[in-house]
Amino acid sequence: MSELPLGALPATVPEPGLPARVTIYEVGPRDGLQNEKGVVDTAVKAEFVTRLLAAGLPIVEATSFVHPRWVPQLADAADLMTLLGEAGKGLPVLVPNERGLDRALELGMRHVAIFGSATETFASKNLNRTLDEQFAMFEPVVQRARDAGLDVRAYVSMCFGDPWEGQVPIEQVVGVGRRLLDLGASQLSLGDTIGVGTAGHVTALVDAFVAAGVGTDRLALHFHDTYGQALANTYAGLRAGVTTYDASAGGLGGCPYAKSATGNLATEDLLWFLTGLGIEHGVDLGQVVDASVWMAGQLGRPSPSAVVRALAGA
Ligand code: HMG
Ligand code: MG
Fold first, then answer.
1. Alpha-carbon distance 155 to 79, whole Å?
2. What range(s) does the Pyruvate carboxyltransferase domain occupy (predicted)?
3. How remote is the CA of residue 70 from the centroid of ligand 1, in Å?
């Protein structure tokens, strides 16, 4: 338990009708760091992951087995997972294709995540595939991963808007999401890659998935905070019954292949919000703040998280 200053937790005032408990899916070491220009030392990444796990975060996405030329920052994925040892094998890692899966299997990973696009342009820019071709790439990945007993998460990017195509129809997102689940993914994380979504849009999208037969227990929400909407969107998600939220310690983040993608919803901002609502999360806010302040020191710039700045003056 880290020492927080007096008044460093909000009053807890529950609101009826919201979930009693949520799962925070921490993406700082992967989504947070993938966009960093200066290469971060593998040992620093390992310590970041370890600190986040020690803070009680139940899931910490560690890295990506993507092409090292596409994301040079994560070229050390195998070294990182080797350094993390047994503890690392239970952490999810991104794999876009069979080559990525092979690399993850060689290291004994038990959870992988594929990442699809709701739009044609982003499929091409992020995966070098058309919208349809992405499913052909993912199909054997999911099949082989499941045959090997792995759990598979699927992301859908550009669910609320695309910097090249503009608005993205809800039916298009639901169509892509359903196809990814039909391949055999256990959970679908709906990404607001460029942070343009607003609360009513979140409600409408979640409701559309439910109407298409996808329960909220299979959905997660992944907000980037580019336009400052991430917490309002989380509130809409809670009201719609979603109980898994992706967040990034300190608000690090961005996608190198999506112009205008900035940091993810900061884990600390989410923790403050959930604590105020009396929603259980099992995470020690002070320890996450400490990890983010330490990471900000490594990166040489302050955290963009309002809660980190308020609590740590960082
Ligand atoms: P490609 O160039 O089409 O690959 O890239 P390819 O299949 O034609 O293969 C070309 C060469 O790359 C081959 O080598 C492969 O072996 C090698 P060669 O035979 O020529 O020597 N190769 C690999 N090497 C290592 N690891 C691999 C791998 N795959 C192929 N996995 C590819 C296609 C998918 C690989 C590429 O486009 C890629 O790596 N993209 C990743 C982009 C990325 O990581 N983006 C960020 C993550 S997504 C995100 O942040 C959004 C999210 O947060 C949600 C949200 O916010 O919306 C999840
Ligand atoms: Mg993201």
1. 25
2. 22-289
3. 6
